[in-house]
Design goal:
This protein is an alpha/beta fold. It has 25 helices and 17 strands. It is globular and about 105 Å long. It comes from Linderina pennispora.
């Protein structure tokens, strides 16, 4: 680019004309201009293609540039390219050369027509080509040039796709209220009563980052039903939710939508106030009520003025008061319809259910950690009660009591719910229907997850049976045709078989379930004691003790689950075990040769999103070849080109797999895992479960996934009230009954 265009000049122009433009857009514009400049200087400019108008202008408009400024900028860029084209000279500029003599088109057409008729009446004789080579008439230089031009086009198209993807990844997210207002243009939802609120969209395609997610798919959500959306990591479930939430699929505007995708931004707003503010319809009604009351008070003042600044007459005042009174009555009726007076108690109930204590209600939202702000986002969504609620892995940041409360709450949900989850227990409790996303399609099943699993297995068996039966029948027909086709006595029957074969419907071979496997290497043996805590107390200050007098002992065969309410110190306990935190008093002993691999629930924060998965392993755990890293990632389901994609483009589950691959490279004696199943799909959870069962080292984990705990762990420790005690019951289900009695479930 430096030889053709001045990068700094372009960057300065962009920042001057589009203040606040994202750097990622600056880079893409520079890249496009560089490609265009190279093309015109080489005489490769495509007729009908205008990179400034077709590619750059839409980017600048999407970046928020004013129309006049964008127009001025595009004119400048076009002038720069025109200048380069002029310097390239007329031959390169036009790509044409002067003919040595006139061409008589009529004669040429006659020759072509004659050749065509000859070809139709005379079969082609290629026998002369046998046994000798024929010199190619292809200009190899021109061929290479054409191939390069095609490659450049494909690269440009890929850059465009990556730019579109980066807008979803890099853009500064709107705050929740802005997003609500943008995607829900109808504020007064009392006016939509009586309308059909089913969502039915047919024959749509979705792509992301140049990859096709769904092809010619259909989705039908019946109002009042609760749908679980399942599928493998990276299949595009979150992308589908995002497309629905942004109304990129044709969802009627009178259907209100809310998508809980990310933790809310923290500020000075008290927690309960942030929940109340989420109901934008109620907030607008309250503002309208305040405005009307203020206007009525103004009219009661001596000598009120009208809009023109003139003193109002008594008749005008009376008429205005009547008008405002009618408006106020309408507002009050709507507030009563939505039970506005019960809003605060309803918000408090939701916050309590999600684990917030009453003392937390008045805490500013910025004082909460990311996990708790995610709960606040969920609380806001439940309080709003939109017509269509979209949830993406809502149980990830919840402890077991909060998960139980959420299951119970969602079972009473009266509008439509579409939730992505890989928690089988949660889906069994909540879902009335399952949508299975696979092979660029959406399959709908009636019933909860267990019902889906049984139905899918039965359907799959029938599909395999039908496919194999048809393949056998096809083979039988083909054998008959091959045998008797040229037999005079049976040619007619053979011809009938051909027609039958042609009319048979084409059946696709049922998709094979890809088996996902995780594998952790066996560590070398070390003699006990391996790791223990002796009278450990920890607090961030003398007044705030998290753990007190903890005594635990772990050997190489340990399979321990740590359970307890959020905020009780489970993650703190793990960090003390691995040495990330030092005890205030007491001692943590670790064997001198002990290798510990730690999976943090915030593991994504520790990944360089600009690197590829291979690049991450190479940088963090050097010493192997790229091929070895790719092979290792493949054993954790990051196969093919996925290992060469930037980590930022991977799904949450794929990022988790990259992290697990990194743990295995360390060849640990002990795996310490904090919420390891978050973001993993069901197949990956099963693969992790099997890998941990086979692992010869120790495992200690924190998880809210009942099935995972039940399958992996042989003992449970309860972390509560600053103490850590061994649970004497019969596993996670008994513990769940103890903390969430059946009458509360």
């Amino acid at each position: 680019m430096a030889d053709l265009l001045n990068q700094k000049q372009i960057e300065k122009l962009l920042h001057t004309h589009v203040p606040g433009i994202d750097e990622v857009i600056v880079e893409y514009v520079q890249g496009y201009l560089n490609d265009a400049a190279t093309a015109v200087s080489n005489g490769d400019k495509d007729v009908g293609e205008d990179p400034v108008e077709d590619l750059i202008r839409p980017m600048l408009e999407e970046a928020g540039g004013k129309e006049s400024k964008v127009e001025d900028l595009c004119v400048k860029f076009a002038a720069l390219l025109s200048e380069i084209e002029q310097k390239a000279g007329p031959a390169k500029r036009s790509g044409m050369a002067k003919l040595a003599a006139p061409v008589h088109m009529a004669a040429q057409l006659a020759q072509i027509d004659k050749a065509a008729r000859l070809a139709q009446t005379r079969p082609a004789d290629l026998s002369h080509t046998k046994g000798r080579s024929v010199a190619s008439q292809v200009d190899t230089k021109k061929l290479k040039k054409a191939e390069a031009r095609i490659a450049a086009k494909l690269q440009k198209r890929e850059h465009r796709s990556l730019y579109e993807a980066s807008k979803l990844i890099e853009e500064n997210p709107m705050d929740d209220d802005e997003l609500l207002m943008k995607v829900n243009p109808i504020l007064d939802y009392t006016s939509t009563r009586g309308k059909i609120k089913d969502v039915k969209v047919d024959n749509f395609d979705i792509s992301y980052a140049g990859k096709r997610i769904l092809t010619n798919s259909s989705i039908h959500l019946v109002y009042g039903r609760r749908y679980g959306l399942i599928g493998r990591n990276g299949i595009g479930k979150s992308t589908l939710l995002r497309n629905i939430a942004r109304r990129e699929l044709a969802v009627p505007t009178y259907i209100s939508i809310l998508f809980v995708e990310q933790e809310m931004a923290g500020d000075d707003t008290p927690a309960i106030r942030s929940v109340l503010k989420a109901d934008i319809f109620r907030e607008q009604l309250l503002r309208d009520e305040a405005d009307v009351n203020a206007e009525l008070q103004r009219l009661d003042a001596p000598a009120p003025l009208d809009d023109n600044g003139e003193e109002m007459t008594k008749l005008e005042i009376e008429a205005k008061k009547n008008e405002l009174g009618d408006r106020l009555n309408g507002i009050m009726t709507k507030l009563q319809d939505i039970e506005s007076d019960k809003a605060e108690s309803k918000a408090g109930e939701i916050l309590n259910g999600l684990g917030f204590g009453s003392v937390d209600f008045q805490r500013p939202t910025k004082s909460f950690s990311g996990g708790w702000r995610m709960r606040l986002s969920l609380a806001r969504a439940l309080f709003c009660k939109p017509d269509l609620l979209l949830l993406d892995e809502p149980t990830n940041m919840l402890d077991i009591p909060a998960v139980v409360w959420l299951e119970r709450y969602l079972r009473t949900w009266t509008s439509t719910l579409l939730v992505v989850s890989h928690d089988r227990e949660f889906l069994d409790e909540v879902a009335t229907d399952i949508i299975h996303q696979h092979s660029e399609q959406l399959d709908h099943y009636r019933g909860n997850f267990k019902s889906f699993w049984d139905t899918r297995e039965e359907r799959r068996k029938n599909q395999i049976k039908e496919y194999e039966s048809q393949m056998a029948y096809r083979q039988h027909l083909q054998e008959y045709i091959d045998r008797w086709r040229y037999n005079a006595n049976r040619a007619a029957q053979a011809q009938m078989k051909i027609k039958i074969l042609e009319k048979l419907p084409e059946l696709e071979k049922p998709e094979d379930d890809k088996i996902v496997t995780f594998s952790f290497p066996d560590p070398d043996s070390i003699s006990p004691p391996v790791m223990y805590m002796d009278e450990v107390t920890f607090g961030y200050n003398s007044e705030r003790k998290i753990l007190e007098n903890v005594n635990i002992d772990m050997q190489m065969d340990a399979r321990v689950a740590i359970v307890g309410p959020n905020g009780a110190g489970k993650t703190t306990l793990l960090k003390l075990l691995i040495g990330k935190l030092d005890p205030t008093t007491g001692m943590v002993h670790r064997h001198g040769r002990l290798r510990i691999a730690y999976f943090s629930q915030h593991h994504v924060d520790q990944l360089d999103l600009g690197l590829t998965a291979v690049g991450h392993l190479k940088k963090t755990y050097p010493g192997k070849t790229d091929e070895e890293y790719r092979s290792h990632l493949g054993s954790f389901g990051i196969s093919g080109m996925t290992g060469l994609q930037e980590i930022r483009t991977l799904s949450g589950g794929q990022k988790s797999r990259v992290t697990f691959a990194g743990l295995a490279v360390q060849n640990p004696h002990f795996l310490v895992l904090d919420e390891p199943t978050n973001h993993l799909d069901m197949e990956s959870i099963d693969a992790l479960t099997n890998a941990l069962k086979l692992f010869k080292g120790g495992v200690v984990l924190v998880s809210h996934d009942e099935r995972f705990i039940d399958s992996v762990c042989t003992e449970m420790w309860v972390c509560a009230d600053r103490k850590v005690t061994k649970f004497s019951g019969e596993g996670i289900k008994e513990y769940k009954k103890l903390i969430c009695p059946p009458e509360e479930q």
